[in-house]
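In the laboratory, one determines a bound structure by crystallizing the protein with its ligand and collecting diffraction data. In a computational setting the workflow is compressed into a single prediction: the sequence and the ligand go in, and a structural description comes out. We illustrate the idea with flavin-adenine dinucleotide.
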Amino acid sequence: MAEHDVDLFVIGGGSGGVRAARIAAEHGASVMLAEEYRLGGTCVIRGCVPKKLLVYASRFHGEFEDAAGFGWTVPHASFDWTTLIANKDREIARLEAAYGATLAKAGVKVVKTRAALLDAHTIRLADGARVRARYVLIATGGTPSYGDPIFGIEYVITSNEAFHLPDFPRRVVIQGGGYIAVEFAGIFAGLGSHVTLVYRRENILRGFDDDVRHHLRVEMEARGIRVFTGCKVVAVEDAAGHFVVRLTSGSQIPADRVMFATGRVPNIAKIGLKEAGVEIAKNGGIAVDDYSRTTVANIYAVGDVTNRINLTPVAIREGHAFADTVFGGKPTAVDHTNVPTAVFSEPEIGTVGLTEGQARERLAQTDIYKAMFKPLKATLSGRQTTVLIKLVVDGLSDRVVGCHVVGEGAAEIAQIAAIAVKMGAKKADFDATIALHPTAAEELVTMRKRFASFARVAAE
Ligand SMILES: Cc1cc2nc3c(=O)[nH]c(=O)nc-3n(C[C@H](O)[C@H](O)[C@H](O)COP(=O)(O)OP(=O)(O)OC[C@H]3O[C@@H](n4cnc5c(N)ncnc54)[C@H](O)[C@@H]3O)c2cc1C
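The predicted complex, in structure-token form:
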């Protein structure tokens, strides 16, 4: 009898696990993958994809308003939540099936069950069956965290439930200041809810460039979203038919739905890490080296469960690199620098590289180039909005080390700018590029005048 049933057992059928399983199988490995919920994982089922579909839905509202300045008379538009959710669910089911088909075509055996490690080579399935594997990949992702326990927490939903609400909420309170919180604030507000965002720190989007944070907050408030910072939700009370949300500031807000987007934690509970000897890192995720290998030689981990950079394309890249390393004879470490990221708020944010604050800490000299302007479309629509474009430049080497955009199409702009930043393009290269007119992105190559220059403050 063979010592192992399969070459690779993957726990988790999300972005990282599915890619790793497919590539490993294409390299000739026999692969089994366990998924306890739905193939596709967070991104496909209750993350990036359904979220972006809801974002599209929410933006029609502004488009209808803006149309008047261009001569259109739009009859009173009405919105139906049930139709949106049903159509979204149909698309998600199609994608889920496509993931299954791709894995089947690659020869991966999928088992729809929960799996946990019994030791470094043995996996136990929910029905008690055991599978022996030469290698194990843990790709169990993350899950929403509710933060500190509060009175009435049972009434609070997370992004998981927000995608499946039976009724459209007219009044929504969202607690959190990260990208998921501001994205859902924009979604609900665009679809017609009165939205209040509550965040305990001084401003939303911690970790993003300070100009970007300030700019988005002003734009969100201009669209009617109330942003309360420096306070927290202390209680959610059932008030017969709706909820009353009490804040540390003493405010009481009536709401039909209360959502917490207060961070996500790696899915490490009850998957047998201790039994297998897999250690946890300081960041709360599974500890891994540059090749995603854990503290146990035959066990690897990729994606959100490692809590490195929790984005789909990063999980996919890590899964692919793992398969190439272990089964493709091509050891591949993932480069986690200059990963572009977007916030699909209204307006959108696209960013890559260092923030001004990070650059000023790390570089001897930081030069800032910045443009804020009214977009052409807003001239006729009359919308009060401005675009922000900011370049962070290493003052000594002239390399562009950060690019930050807030405005329509920001995510698309950031993806392209990321290539230049990754290649090490200099500000002179941006300047040498002829503008594409009329666009917002042309400001990237026409900002000649330095906005500010900072020398690093020497450490004491
Ligand atoms: C609301 C929201 C919006 C997001 N938007 C974006 C975005 O716009 N862009 C972006 O890049 N990223 C976005 N993300 C993040 C992105 O979804 C994740 O980074 C990505 O899905 C991580 O992939 P993963 O493979 O590590 O884990 P996941 O995709 O979470 O997959 C893990 C899978 O493992 C399964 N599983 C867990 N435990 C077990 C077990 N013991 N046995 C069997 N199966 C198990 C789970 O059911 C799940 O399907 C968003 C996330 C959320 C929540």
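The mean pLDDT is 97. Keep in mind that any predicted model is a hypothesis to be tested, not a measurement.
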